[in-house]
């Protein structure tokens, strides 16, 4: 079976050799809105690998605690002029008694500018309590009560477009797509067209009320962030996207074969380091990509580097589950649990947050084997990295971030392990060819060559981000 990396490269070649980016439905260049989701669906169809945590409705949440300021946060149109409009990452993590946004909070707490932070619900919920200043909850359903999108007249255009792109990819990959795949694409395009309609109205209202000098987003490929970005551009408001996880050369939302002037892609990108500035094939000029660092990671790495871990009778091994390779990771964790009985090894299985609800169904036997399974956001991922002797995974972005900690990293040579090449290629992690190799590394306390990782994470992130924001505000969208 071809790896998803090979298939993704072919996907880029195919889209680049056709005029997908210029194809319009109802005057909307639709491909830039759907390419990430289409690519994900395509890879599932070609490989047969469906991730265990795909269905967002299956994910459970901790109940939000009542907050006396909750009513204010829900008044999303109770706004006045601010310098910045920020859209955070709603998948908050708990620190002490409060939940924090791991992308924006550390940075925003250092700013002198005024701002609002808009947060959309994560799997239908907002985590509370929080300390985020100027927080508003984004709820576009309000728009849908007063406006109606009727795409019935567009159905022939939708069918023509979806038939065309499906035909192209079928021919290029020499595959016949399932009827379900084809119908899913039609449904997706109709959904996206409808949400663009509502998203544009919402973005125009919010931007007109706040009149920000700058818009900052995370997860720029979220459809409502896309409509916010394009609306801001029409109003000549500069836009920045903050990196929220490893990008590399295989993230479909950020890698393109050629440069493109996309209305939905931010004017600027703030990334972790020089590696993320120079490795991905962005649609924008590299002069607009700034290697500023990652404030939250820098803060947590400093905390755990200064904290002397209490001597323990246990050797802690943490397995990192991810959407694509969780079943393989769980197999290795279970096998290790059988081999280390009575040997003073504590095994932790760190679930991806979207796996919390049905992990027992997909990864049976973990708790029964004496493995500690993380079931909710009681601690952020850095807590687990900082308290581990070994962190084990395949392609999770966590392995990339673990380079900043003193823990040893093991990459298992299975599935798309090449996505972690930045980690083991520089000598910062050990590459295990199979279970026996991994077991030998842990049993004999083997260590990787600790190479310099400054190329991956720029230091003094807050200072760098503030300086660059100042420059962009001074120059508007003209900087290049």
Describe this structure in words.
The structure is a single chain. This protein is 38% helix and 13% strand. It has helices at 4-17, 31-47, 70-73, 105-108, 141-146, 155-173, 179-210, 223-234, 274-278, 295-306, 326-339, 359-362, 381-386, 397-401, 421-424, 435-443, 461-475, and strands spanning 24-25, 28-29, 84-87, 93-95, 98-100, 115-119, 135-137, 214-218, 239-242, 268-271, 289-291, 315-320, 345-350, 372-373, 390-393, 408-412, 430-432. The protein has a seven-stranded parallel beta sheet, with helices on both faces. The chain has a six-stranded parallel beta sheet with strand order 14-13-12-15-16-17. Strand 10 (268-271), helix 9 and strand 11 form a beta-alpha-beta unit. Helix 2 packs antiparallel against helix 7 (179-210). The longest helix is centred in the middle third of the chain and has 32 residues, at 179-210.
* Strand composition percent: 5-15%
Low-confidence stretches at least 5 residues in length (pLDDT < 50)? 51-66
The radius of gyration computed from the alpha-carbon positions, rounded to a whole number of angstroms, is: 23 Å
Give the CA-based shape. Answer: globular
For the biggest β-sheet, the strand order reads 7-6-3-8-9-10-11
Brief description of this entry?
This protein has 480 residues and is an alpha/beta fold.
Question: Secondary-structure map with pairings?
Answer:
Blueprint (H helix, E strand, L loop, with lengths): L3 H14 L6 E2 L2 E2 L1 H17 L22 H4 L10 E4 L5 E3 L2 E3 L4 H4 L6 E5 L15 E3 L3 H6 L8 H19 L5 H32 L3 E5 L4 H12 L4 E4 L25 E4 L2 H5 L10 E3 L3 H12 L8 E6 L5 H14 L5 E6 L8 H4 L9 E2 L7 H6 L3 E4 L3 H5 L6 E5 L8 H4 L5 E3 L2 H9 L17 H15 L5
Parallel strand pairs: 3-6, 3-8, 6-7, 8-9, 9-10, 10-11, 12-13, 12-15, 13-14, 15-16, 16-17
Antiparallel strand pairs: 1-2, 4-5
Helix pairs in contact: 1-2, 2-7, 6-7, 7-8
């Amino acid at each position: 079976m071809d790896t998803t990396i090979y298939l993704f490269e072919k996907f880029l070649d195919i889209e680049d050799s056709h005029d997908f980016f210029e194809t319009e439905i109802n005057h909307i260049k639709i491909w830039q809105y759907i390419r990430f989701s289409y690519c994900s669906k395509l890879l599932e169809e070609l490989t047969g690998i469906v991730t265990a945590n795909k269905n967002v409705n299956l994910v459970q949440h901790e109940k939000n605690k009542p907050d006396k300021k909750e009513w204010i946060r829900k008044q999303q149109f109770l706004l006045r002029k601010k310098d910045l409009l920020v859209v955070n990452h709603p998948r908050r993590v708990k620190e002490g008694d409060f939940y924090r946004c791991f992308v924006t909070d550390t940075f925003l707490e250092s700013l002198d500018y005024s701002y609002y932070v808009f947060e959309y619900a994560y799997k239908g919920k907002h985590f509370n309590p929080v300390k985020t200043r100027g927080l508003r909850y984004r709820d576009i359903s309000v728009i849908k009560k007063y406006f109606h999108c009727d795409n019935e007249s567009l159905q022939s255009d939708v069918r023509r477009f979806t038939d065309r792109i499906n035909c192209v990819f079928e021919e290029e990959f020499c595959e016949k797509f399932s009827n379900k795949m084809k119908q899913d694409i039609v449904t997706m395009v109709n959904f996206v067209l409808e949400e663009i309609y509502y998203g544009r109205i919402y973005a125009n209202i919010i931007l007109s009320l706040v009149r920000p000098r700058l818009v900052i987003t995370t997860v720029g490929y979220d459809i409502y962030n896309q409509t916010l970005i394009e609306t801001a551009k029409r109003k000549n408001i500069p836009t920045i996207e903050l990196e929220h996880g490893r990008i590399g050369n295989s993230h479909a939302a950020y890698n393109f074969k050629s440069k493109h002037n996309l209305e939905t892609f931010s004017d600027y990108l703030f990334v972790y380091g020089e590696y993320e500035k120079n490795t991905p094939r962005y649609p924008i000029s590299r002069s607009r990509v700034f290697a500023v660092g990652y404030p939250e990671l820098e803060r947590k790495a400093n905390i755990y580097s200064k904290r002397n871990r209490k001597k323990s009778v246990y050797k802690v091994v943490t397995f990192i589950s991810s959407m694509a390779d969780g079943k393989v990771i769980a197999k290795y964790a279970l096998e290790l649990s059988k081999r280390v009985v009575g040997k003073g090894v504590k095994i932790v299985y760190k679930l991806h947050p979207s796996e919390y609800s049905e992990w027992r169904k997909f990864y049976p036997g973990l708790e029964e084997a004496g493995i500690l399974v993380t079931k909710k956001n009681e601690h952020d991922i850095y807590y687990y990295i900082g308290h581990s002797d070994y962190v084990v995974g395949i392609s999770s972005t966590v392995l990339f971030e673990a380079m900043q900690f003193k823990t040893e990293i093991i990459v298992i040579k299975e599935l798309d392990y090449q996505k972690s090449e930045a980690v083991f290629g520089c000598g910062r992690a050990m590459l295990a060819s199979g279970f026996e190799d991994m077991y030998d590394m842990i049993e004999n306390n083997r260590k990787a060559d600790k190479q310099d990782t400054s190329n991956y994470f720029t230091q003094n992130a807050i200072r760098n981000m503030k300086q660059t924001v100042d420059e962009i505000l001074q120059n508007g969208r003209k900087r290049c």
